[in-house]
Design goal:
The protein is α+β, with helices and mostly antiparallel strands. Helices cover about 60% and strands about 15% of the residues. It has helices spanning about 1-10, 15-25, 25-45, 60-65, 70-90, 90-100, 105-115, 135-155, 180-205; strands at about 50-60, 115, 120-130, 165-170, 175-180. Strands 1, 2, 3, 4 and 5 form a five-stranded antiparallel sheet that branches. Helix 6 runs antiparallel to helix 8 (about 135-155). The longest helix is centred in the C-terminal third of the chain and has 24 residues, at about 135-155. It is elongated and about 75 Å long.
Length: about 210
């Protein structure tokens, strides 16, 4: 019995089964619609947090730091200074003001609330998530401004190359939106219902009427 069940599960679908699936287009359309409605309901009942983005422009001034244009030295310089800045962005000294402004622990800030999009040069994006757009905007702005102040202090003390220049270019009226868009919920709900419907259609055989 068990062997026949395993063969049924792992056997390739027959032509008749494929035709049956294709003919049930009304069933799939209804399933996709119901799944999308379920996804929308989840989005409304338990919406994702808001996410705000602040931007800090980082200029490593390669031309001034390495005027001889040695590729290997430039690469090492960029990698070293970028690593220093990234470590400062997640340091306790930078995150402490953010924690005080949000009443969220530094551990939680690092784990779930804050995200850093860090290229080698140009704009560094500081993302923060919160239940309200105003709170998310405040967190992102505090994080970006504190980061710039800390880096400038390290430059003044000689711990970071003085050629590095930072400017907080976006810390007010920040772009804010839900961290996960509604379309993702709709798509996930539709695909989930379609998958479940396909499995039911293939593996659950309709009961035959008794003569």
């Amino acid at each position: 019995m068990a062997h026949s069940t395993m063969n049924f599960i792992f056997s390739s679908p027959s032509t008749a089964e494929v035709v049956t699936l294709l003919r049930a287009w009304r069933f799939w359309a209804l399933g996709a619609l119901l799944g999308a409605l379920l996804g929308a309901a989840v989005y409304i009942i338990a919406p994702p947090p808001y996410r705000a983005r602040a931007t800090v422009n980082v200029d490593f001034n390669l031309e001034a730091a390495w005027p001889k244009d040695v590729d290997r030295q430039q690469f090492y310089y960029l990698e070293r200074e970028a690593r220093k800045l990234e470590e400062l962005a997640w340091s306790d000294e930078v995150l402490a003001p953010v924690s005080a402004a949000s009443q969220v622990t530094v551990e939680d800030l690092r784990a779930t609330v804050l995200q850093l999009s860090q290229p080698a040069e140009a704009g560094w994006h500081f993302y923060a998530e919160a239940d309200t757009p105003q709170a998310a905007e405040e967190l992102a702005a505090v994080w970006a401004n504190t980061f710039v102040q800390k880096v400038q202090a390290e430059i003044d003390s000689g711990n970071i190359n003085p050629f590095v220049k930072l400017e907080a270019t976006q810390t007010q009226a920040l772009p804010k939106q839900r961290s996960v868009p509604l379309s993702n919920y709709l798509l996930a709900g539709a695909l989930g219902c379609l998958t479940l419907a396909a499995l039911m259609r293939l593996f659950v055989k309709p009961a035959t009427a008794q003569p």
